[in-house]
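Chain X:
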Amino acid sequence: MPTQPSSPEVVAKSGPTKSIGRDLRRLAAVAVVGAGLVGIGIAEHSAPAVAQFKPGTPAETLSFAEIVERVKPAVVSISTTNEVKVADRSRGPGGRPFEGIPGLPEDHPLNEFFKNMPNGQGNPMQQRPRQAAGSGFVVSPDGYIVTNNHVVDGATKVKVSFDDQEEIDARIVGTDSRTDLALLKIEPKKPLTALKFAEKNPRVGDWVLAVGNPFGLGGTVTAGIVSALARNIGGPYDYMQIDAAVNHGNSGGPTFNLEGDVVGVNTAIYSPTGGNVGIAFAVPSDTVKRVVEQLQKGGTVSRGWLGVKIQNIDKDLAGSLGLKEPKGAIISEVMADGPAADAGLKVEDAILQIDAKPIEDSRDLARTIADLPAKSTVDVKVWRNKAEQTVKVKLGTYPNTAAAEEGNTEPEEPSKDLGGNVDLKQLGLSVKAGPGKDGVVISDVDPNSDAALKGIKEGDIVLKAGNETVTSPQDVAKAVKKAQDEGLPAVMFHIKKSGDQTVLVAIPLGKG
């Protein structure tokens, strides 16, 4: 008689509760032994295990069929058409009609080869339609549908289809690139099944279902758990991580809890191969709900804007500022004519609080400001010159272009070597005179120093050291000595990187 495999014990440990885990161990043992019946015959002792499951046992709760039956009618497949420019492959070099080789069959590979041959002038560009697929879900009986912005971005035609495969034209009500959400509208012949957003946030370990249109296959259901919350995948907003299978085409589809309520909108996957590896990200439902409400009212999302560039405060920056702990966000640049500039906020101000809300880091600040209405007035508590101050700021409207936040990204000319090195061994770097009146140049960085660990590189320009503007290497040395005399654990530098990006870096004193 064959020995019963030990692997079912490992499978059974994935059960959600202890009681279900015991039943799963029995079920898994039957399933795995049964899978081996093809080659080894039936084991006598395996049959009784099947009878142990009766209606009403905890194992029945592992079926999601009833939930799927309720929610699936509200999930749609989305197809879009975009106009893209492509080279006219039907024409030969110089744009002349392609004549081919006399007598060569039309389907011969050489025909395609000659059409693709490069030419000096290039073939004329033509507008060609390109189709893409995604997912979405109904949020109101009269036909409002939520999806991802990247699903419909640039689309000239949008169609949605339900389980009955009937395609319906949809119009784009509004989009929000910052959360990658979009709202569509269709005109249904009858009221639609609509989904509601969950009233409470999920917990790590909760079961979730993902429904969507992977690879254009149509309505597909997968199950998994919430793997993590508050994931940072870029931007100020947090994402929920799930391990339910999500693939291309699932974008814009919903993630449900076991109540059938939407807890997130599937947006992105992490994959070295392009396919599902069990790491997917969804926009949390509380964020989706706020964005959808604004899109439905006016087609756009209004966000507050402070008009600053900010960065996190690490331990060394906190020490150089005289802060007791590394919390808040420090201003590295103030936009000209922006709300912060008008209110008198300055570079090196550490923002500790917005109204009554403490600020943890730069992402927390960006999210807090974005969630406030444009043109609202807020109290900004800052740390300036080793003391707290409160500044009233009337927020602006968040610009639509990234350039408004990122500034100039043109590459800088390399700095010229003008000699006059000053070696700051305690910091692990050397500086020399710069090409103009503004700043001095980093001429050398010890690869084992704190300066190197913090990203300072040869060619970076020091604009300020401590609180002083520097125009010579000697100014930097004086600022370092002053920080030492004041007993500060670190000295702060304003570093200008290539592309006009300015960052604040604090380097511990006495290390190199």
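Chain Y:
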Amino acid sequence: MLPSESTMIAPAQQQDLLKASPISSPLVGKQGVQPQIALSLLTPAASHAIPQKPMRPLTAYHIFFQIERELIIQTSEGEIANKSSLDNKVYLDDVPQRYKSIKLLPDWYAGPGKRKKRKHRKQHGKIGFLELSRVISARWAELDVVDPETKAFVQKIAQMEIDEYYRDMKRYKEFTKDMLPVMSKFVPSKKSAGKRSSSNISNCNDSALEVKPEQPLCGGVMSPCPDMVASSLELMQLQIQLQTEIDHFLACIEKRKQELLSSHFAAKKTQLIMSQQVPRSFESEEPLQKKRKSFLCEGSVSEQNTEAHIVSARHSACLSPSSSDELEIGDDEIMNLWKYGSN
């Protein structure tokens, strides 16, 4: 495999090529920025001495696709539109019985880069590529059961091709291990050159030449990269946003705490009020009332003790279960009762 154009240069040839005259590029401005090394400096013998990197071979399915395509096209109904499509094709003996009735090229199974270049011919027009792919993929899925001979045949060819590919890659790596990649000369095509005007090319070249390296600010320290400045600003904004969210979260926690305390105190207050409004059970207070009655009515009460009469009257009114008023005795009344009642 010998290439027509090279992308590698041997170390021995590199020193000679560096001394060659510079080559101008059509996309460069008036000052003439020139590439270091151009491929056109290589002699034809040197360019053909460097092999091209091998291309990966076809898989078993792709090989089956190639031969099955020929079978479908050549066995379709009607005459072949272009008789020249069978030129250089012959009947092969080393193919399965399924394909002995069709003509094939000697290198029909070869991968890209190995086939001989042929003149482009008009398509047969019998079946579209999409329909052809569907038919062949369906046949490939059933090939193990329907025709195992063909399956083994295409797998054997694929294995031979992959073995040859590995051998070629090994030779290629051994040959190019001491070579250095170089910059190739860019030659625009006529179509691309016609689309772009000369003024646009000169403007691009002038703007590229006007770019100068940034000078240090002081003490040999370069100014920060714009990307670094932008990332620093974004980091500061994220920190500020995070701090704001934390403050808002803490404020919400404090507010919620106050609401919980207020609701707790309100519940306790309501519970206390409800407990005070519950009517008392006279059965549980009967012993206490008897003690109060015996204390108030026991012995003779002095006529001058008017406070005792008032307390006794209030107590007698409260002893009735039907009474809704509670017994209220102040501290002064109790002290007077104790003083005069003890005489």
